[in-house]
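tl;dr need the bound structure. longer version: we got a ligand (pyridoxal-5'-phosphate) that a collaborator sent over and nobodys looked at where it sits. i said id run it. heres the input, straight from their email, havent touched it
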Amino acid sequence: MKIPFLNLTRHSHKLLKETTQAAARVIERGNFILGEEVREFENEWSKYCETVGAVGVANGTDAITLALIASGVGQDDEVITTPLTAAYTSLAIVNAGAKPVYVDIDEKTFNLNPEKIEPAVTPRTRAVVPVHLYGQSADMRAIAEISECHKLLVIEDAAQAHGARFDGKPCGFSSLAATHSFYPTKNLGAFGDGGAIVSSDEDFLNKASILRQGGHADAFELNLIGRNSRLDEMQAAILRVKLKFLDEWTRRRRELAEIYFERLKNFPRLQMPFVREKSVFHLFVIRHPDRNGLKNHLAEKGIETLIHYPYLLHEQKIFRGDGQKSLPVAEKIVKEILSLPLYPELETAEIEAVCAAIEEFENK
Ligand SMILES: Cc1ncc(COP(=O)(O)O)c(C=O)c1O
């Protein structure tokens, strides 16, 4: 049995009729930029995220950059963040003119370790960008407390955590803003690129919406140096169709995760994801001392796995600042992580086959 890591065709096929109708609606209306679909999606997304508002932007990277700029972070400011995430989180910080400063991650959750923030604070530190990696929220209570103590802004990178919560509170609740990516593989994915910033600070939202349009507050005046980074009507229309199914997909992700937890719990070499609260399981990432051996074994059985992420950002020449310390936990974990297939359309028989292949490797 061939089991791909992800099957977007299967995913898109289920909503072919509804998404085609939504696309036709946009084409017939003939308004492709910042119209009714974006406005309605922003309302629906902010309601879903339980924030006052949302600003649709071109992608998740720009969402972070624009949120940082709108909050006043810029040239030569330091931003504390995690080394284990998509490179885009750091690129967004650099694009805002700031400098990423990396601290180590928590050995259990793989998210930014709040205890490591304080020792990294300098007079130039302005913000913290935690990432809710793989769908599990970072410890937002501790991060908010430390940040408040040092007067640091917090922008949460929730690209992988649509609907995730910490202490029952949604992403964006304990911070100035949370940012989202709607890259097609995300839990809520567009048919192209898309992103959003959510916040409950109206002045900040207003500034972010000016910045995404080059800096125009209206047609006659350029108020800020902004970007051209708008969510377009077509993607917003698709996202509105798909948003109605997000909770159902998250439930299925959790159901599949339970199968992995149950079937794979008795293998001492295999470390399952630590879930403090209900993760939205964007990815299901295990740890194994012979990660490459297991990966190759699964590949021989036709099962595709990936590594999120194969390198750490504090070790990349383009990001590494002078004086960047080694980060032992991240450096150990990066050699052992493996992402198993998990997406709502994965069939029970398929996940059972993945489990059987892992069991075979462990019993060898
Ligand atoms: C954690 C994280 N942050 C930021 C991004 C960037 O999002 P986008 O690809 O929409 O720019 C991604 C997606 O790759 C991501 O996974």
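gonna send this back to them w/ a short note. The chain has two domains: 8-243, 246-362.
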